[in-house]
Design a protein that fits this description.
This protein has helices at 24-33, 45-49, 53-56, 77-90, 104-107, 119-132, 152-161, 185-192, 209-219, 236-246, 254-271, 274-287, 298-306, 310-329, and strands at residues 2-3, 6-7, 13-15, 38-39, 43-44, 68-73, 94-99, 137-142, 166-170, 200-203, 223-226. By secondary structure, it is an alpha/beta fold. Helix 13 (298-306) runs antiparallel to helix 14.
Length: 330
Amino acid sequence: MKIGNVDLGERPVSLAPMEDVTDPSFRLICREMGAASVYTEFVSAEALIRDIKSTTRKLAINEAERPVAIQIYGRDTDAMVEAAKIVEQAGPDILDINFGCPVKKVAGKGAGAGMLRDIPKMLDITSKVVKAVSLPVTVKTRLGWDCENKIITDLAPRLQDCGIRALTVHGRTRSQMYTGQADWTLIGELKQNPGIEIPIIGNGDITSAEQASKAFSDYGVDGIMIGRGAIGAPWIFKEVREYLETGHYTPLSDAEKFNILRRQIRESIDRIDEYRGILHIRRHLAATPLFKGIPNFRETRIRLLRADTEAEVFNLLDEISEKFFTEKEN
């Protein structure tokens, strides 16, 4: 699958953009684990053109993580065009436009998934961003604003006409947020439309290698994007890649998974500082499937998520490894 001149290979599986999750360290780990491409946290166009440092820092790219996409969002056409030009100077491989974020502070102000209620403006932004940069421009969106307005099959050809080079669709409406089950039916219908010539990438509820394989076989998508299924589990990309290529995969050992979590903690602390780095990584520690199914784990989990020094977090991880995982092996 190609996005412009960026070749992602056959049946690529990419890391989705996620705020406070897809930092440079996590993106690099996911690439090492087999992600075909990675996406930055989304970047506010308004904050970017105002040169807000916390936003401009999101443009930093490690050469080892390529191919990498920078994603922008906003509701003003001129601001989006100006932000796109700034992003191009940062040197990503792809520029992605966020028309899918459902959170109130974004969608409620007309940006992200809020654009699903103003299609003319969505198309205007898309067309003008495409013309403003030489990068391949892609779009990520949802099925529609709500279940009564699932417009993606009509919207996709119009976005294609704006010049985008690929479209990612999350199989939920904005009103669903992240509840219920993602519906890939309309994503599959896009692939059956002979007028759709750009790659279609499916997104939503892929948490295992088997689910990824089924999404390709059942819906015919060109690529898959994994978001929440990778939080605390970047090794999912290794499992998916092996399964797609061979029909089976060899899981990493528990010790290897613990080492990956420790690396994330260290690199988060090095990138920010001890206190804020640990706060940042708690989402991964809370979500990791490594701890699921451990009996009587609640108290230990609370201690882990309240720990606020590197030494305390690592001591607890050692304790968990020795107490629960040694017993599991025995």
